[in-house]
Design brief:
The protein is α+β, with helices and mostly antiparallel strands. The chain has two domains: about 50-155, SEA domain (Alpha-Beta Plaits, 2-Layer Sandwich), CATH 3.30.70; about 170-409, Thrombin, subunit H, CATH 2.40.10.10. About 25% of the residues lie in helices and about 30% in strands. It has seven helices and 16 strands. The longest helix has 28 residues, at about 20-45. The protein starts with a helix and ends with a helix. The structure holds arginine. Arginine binds near residues 303, 353, 358, 359 and 391.
Length: about 400
Amino acid sequence: MPYMIERPARVPSTSRFLNPYVICFVVVAVVVILAVTVALLIYFLAFDQKSYFYHGNVEILNVKYSDQLNSPATQEYRTLSGKIESMLSKTFKESNLRNQFIRAHVVKLRQGGSGVIAEIIMKFKFSRNNNGVSMKSRIESILHQLLNNSGNLEIDPSTELTPCGARSDLITLSEERIIGGTKAEEGDWPWQVSLHLRNAHHCGGILISNMWILTAAHCFKSNSDPRQWTVIFGISTRFPKQRRKVKTIIIHNNYKSATHENDIAVMLLDTSVTFSKNIHTVCLPMATQNILPGSTAYVTGWGSRKYSGSTVTELEQARVNIISNEACNAPNSYNGAILPGMLCAGVPEGGVDACQGDSGGPLVQEDSRRHWFLVGIVSWGYQCGLPDNPGVYTRVTFYRDWITQQTGI
Ligand code: ARG
């Protein structure tokens, strides 16, 4: 009997434990915790991918080296680099690293023992649990199969690679970035410098080597004493990334301010600037390079946003089109003032142009391999942004040999 009495007393506790709501809650909680754990594990093991850069040299044996391959401005250089890039891409896309391979880019071509050596960077993405050393040997073995002769691979020296005319997004092999708005971002125009005269922005300038700046001759009208000038690097003139003093200023000895003829000058730095992905050179075109009317170009600078406005502290950019000298010399335009050493660029409706304070800065165009070439130096214009009075630039191809004579570049 006592048992009979005790049993009903236990029933409520048992039934509370077996309460369907409680069971349901516990089951759901366990499932949720498990799912979150599994999801996090999968994420960290498979999806938390990091970019890895490989720098290597590959020797191309069936191509003979020629001087044409020395400069990124030649068609030969572009064609061969493009071929090597698509061959590497194809090989990796057909290999067991097809999901990890992102892009390959040729940074430089040089003469090899029995062919051409291409310096390449390659970008891969893989999860952190994959170890870098084994990835490196997998990449190497694929390269070896392809070339049966490949140099060494190094991991991530990408900061040392600063080919001319490469914006920082190309150096990091990022997806194509759209140039939007007017404000530039760090690394968008790594060759743009600001020339300060006694601590104030006076002109733009263009980095063409770690010692030389290209600019406009008219920037030195008021002062050509190198000791008064400083070169400022980075997109903000208030918070420079680097600065250098100037040793020598060389102004074209036929510069004529009345006609703006030969508006070109170079400056030698007193110590070399340290290149980075945000500070390095633009590519110079060959003297024979054709600049096509109607093609797109970008002008950058800290100049004023309207005629007789004040200069700005953050670098800006504008997209313009090349205009033929013939059209630019039309009676309703510059009526014959555009000489062969000049180049016009603007937009038909006006409103987009360089302006005061942009002088000496770059007008650049992108080639098929996303390297940027200098085509003009901001020189003059009638006011700013008028529809029939586009910006006038010093034509860089016309002065290509002068630049070599002065700087050896
Ligand atoms: N001469 C001006 C300067 O010293 C540049 C003029 C450019 N003007 C133009 N409309 N694009 O900064």
